[in-house]
Give the backbone structure.
Amino acid sequence: MKDTLSRFIASQPVLHDCQTLSLRGQLIPLGGRIAALDRGRILLLGDAANLADPWLGEGIFYAIRSARIAADEMINFLKGNLADLSSYTSRINLEIVGHLRQARLLARFIYQFPWIGVLITQQEPFDAADHFWRHPRRQNFRQVNQTLVRQLPTILAQTLRGG
Ligand SMILES: Cc1cc2nc3c(=O)[nH]c(=O)nc-3n(C[C@H](O)[C@H](O)[C@H](O)COP(=O)(O)OP(=O)(O)OC[C@H]3O[C@@H](n4cnc5c(N)ncnc54)[C@H](O)[C@@H]3O)c2cc1C
């Protein structure tokens, strides 16, 4: 990654005068797997709960969403409506992890066959840019995957026809 970045900087005249101050890698904890996220009075949220989306690496949305769910469950617990905080884990697995699992499927498929991703992005009637890059969360990843499965034969046929 560092070599690629150096090559990119060298290839861009506008960046030649810039000085690199600090360069370090950071793992993004991609989600999509069921896990226990509560123990006693401790809840894991956001990155600590592995809740970044495996398709684009977005974690801010899910960090905030998990915080809201945690707040709900804590309030319910403090009101005496819950015996413990295990409902937090159940809600995260139900409301977020299933969604991230679909994102993981999408990522596994497209990142393994990037040329299919390129073909899809070139299709006019199927506005892939919108679908994949801008609004996957708005539609939810299950819908994105279903559209992909539906459209893929047509996209491949069109590409073969066009040579
Ligand atoms: C390079 C990079 C680019 C990214 N780009 C995007 C993006 O474009 N869009 C997107 O949605 N997501 C992006 N992400 C992911 C996103 O940053 C994280 O998923 C998100 O910040 C997770 O929020 P969080 O609150 O769970 O954790 P964090 O934002 O990491 O917050 C945890 C905080 O806890 C503090 N902390 C740690 N240990 C202690 C301690 N012992 N005591 C007190 N404080 C402590 C840390 O200093 C930190 O401030 C990116 C991540 C990286 C690394």
